[in-house]
Design goal:
Blueprint (H helix, E strand, L loop, with lengths): L2 H8 L6 H25 L12 H4 L2 H18 L9
C-alpha cells in the first residue's frame, strides 16, 4: 500500500450536511418537545374534563409535543453512527 493510499484511508470522511442536520434534529427534539409540553399545560381546563378524561382537555400543542418527541426518538433509532466506548 502506498503512502498516499494510507493517508486517504486513514482520514475520516467529512460529515455530509444532511448528516449534520439529522444530528441537530435528534438533539433538538427533546428540548423543543419539553418546551411545547410545558407551554401546553397553561391551556388545560380541568373543569371541562368529561368521560374521556384528559384526552378531552389537552390542547393541540400537547399533541404536537408528543409527535415531536416521537419523531426525535425514531430519528435517534435510525442514527447510523457507531456507539462510543468509554
Amino acid at each position: 500500500m502506498s503512502r498516499r493510499q494510507r493517508l486517504t484511508t486513514a482520514v475520516e470522511p467529512a460529515t455530509p450536511p444532511a448528516g449534520r442536520a439529522h444530528r441537530i434534529a435528534v438533539r433538538a427534539a427533546l428540548p423543543v418537545a419539553l418546551l411545547l409540553w410545558l407551554l401546553s399545560l397553561r391551556h388545560v381546563a380541568l373543569d371541562r374534563m368529561g368521560d374521556l378524561g384528559l384526552l378531552q382537555v389537552l390542547p393541540a400543542l400537547y399533541w404536537v409535543a408528543v409527535a415531536l418527541l416521537t419523531l426525535g426518538f425514531v430519528l435517534a433509532l435510525y442514527d447510523r453512527r457507531p456507539g462510543r466506548a468509554g
